[in-house]
Write a structure and sequence with these properties.
Elements: H1 2-25, H2 29-37, E1 42-44, E2 53-55, H3 59-63, H4 68-71, H5 73-82, E3 88-92, H6 98-106, E4 112-116, H7 123-132, E5 139-142, E6 145-146, E7 151-157, E8 168-169, E9 184-191, H8 193-200, E10 207-210, H9 216-221, H10 224-228, E11 234-240, H11 244-255, E12 259-265, E13 274-280
Parallel strand pairs: 3-4, 3-10, 4-5, 6-9, 10-11
Antiparallel strand pairs: 1-2, 7-8, 7-9, 11-13, 12-13
């Protein structure tokens, strides 16, 4: 019975949405533009310590990004346990910036955060969220990809939705190792972390969060010197349980002085188990 009611509500919602869309598209262009430019949806994210607002322009932002703390409580705990004011944080695969914002607010905006998000759809949301929360002094958004080589590479889009994920750099291979059909491809600037730090004289990160849906090992290979630096103390990364990259990453990081510490369930699906692996120096 409950399932039937939900289906009816969803159908009614869909009909109303389609009707409103039709009505808006029937309006004069100037009026459409006025409505679009004056329709801003800001909602509070589920971080209990501080007020964090996110721009919500897609269903995934509403259903997933707004509950980022509920979705990955261990990532929030990792931030609150290890971060202190004055630290440097590389948020690689920042998406709309949920965890960058958590880190900034936890450290009272006295932290240097570099948020990497190559998607042309999601990057504007990241920038708007940084501005909406007054974090322009603590968070630097960078629309570049990170990998094991510096140059121009192909970014494969799994979807074109604000706050979406599962995009990949290079080959269109997802985090499970399966090929997927892209909805769009785009040439983007890609950097090795070591080159980026050297070329732009960036500070060494004390903490790294790595969530790039399949090319985590490539990013690590491009950060060889950075990971050897004693100032890099903590790293958390998403990996699919059982993939060959798990042992390769553990062995590689061990060689850089970063030891496996713990793992927590991440964004698992019925056909794949993804864990957040934590490493410490």
């Amino acid at each position: 019975m409950i399932k039937l009611v939900r289906q009816i509500v969803k159908s009614v919602y869909f009909v109303i949405a389609r009707l409103l869309t039709f009505l808006i598209r029937s309006l004069p262009l100037k009026l459409q533009l006025f409505i679009k430019s004056n329709t801003v949806v800001l909602r509070k994210m589920d971080y209990p310590r501080h007020k964090i607002l996110l721009h919500v322009d897609s269903e995934i932002e509403q259903s997933v990004r707004l509950i980022s703390c509920q979705k990955e409580p261990e990532t929030v705990e990792w931030i609150e346990t290890n971060f202190k004011e004055g630290d440097v944080f590389f948020d690689i695969g920042a998406n709309v910036g949920a965890y960058s914002l958590v880190a900034s607010k936890f450290c009272h905006d006295n932290i240097n955060i570099y948020s990497f998000e190559p998607s042309f759809v999601t990057f504007p949301q990241l920038c708007k969220n940084i501005i909406a929360n007054g974090c322009t002094d603590s968070i630097i958004p960078l629309q570049i990809a990170l990998s094991d080589k510096t140059g121009i590479d192909i970014f494969n889009y799994h979807n074109l939705v604000q706050g979406g994920a599962l995009h990949t750099l290079g080959a269109a291979i997802d985090y499970k190792g399966d090929s997927f059909e892209t909805v769009a491809k785009q040439q983007v600037l890609s950097y090795r972390i070591d080159d980026l730090i050297t070329n732009f004289k960036l500070p060494i990160p004390n903490h790294i969060k790595l969530d790039v849906d399949g090319i985590e090992l490539a990013v690590l290979l491009g950060a060889e010197k950075t990971l050897e630096n004693i100032d890099t103390k903590n790293l958390i990364m998403e990996l699919e349980e059982g993939s060959k990259d798990v042992n390769l990453a553990i062995d590689y990081l061990a060689g850089k002085g970063m030891r496996f510490h713990a793992k927590y369930i991440g964004a698992s699906t019925p056909d794949a188990k993804v864990y957040n692996y934590v490493f410490k120096r």
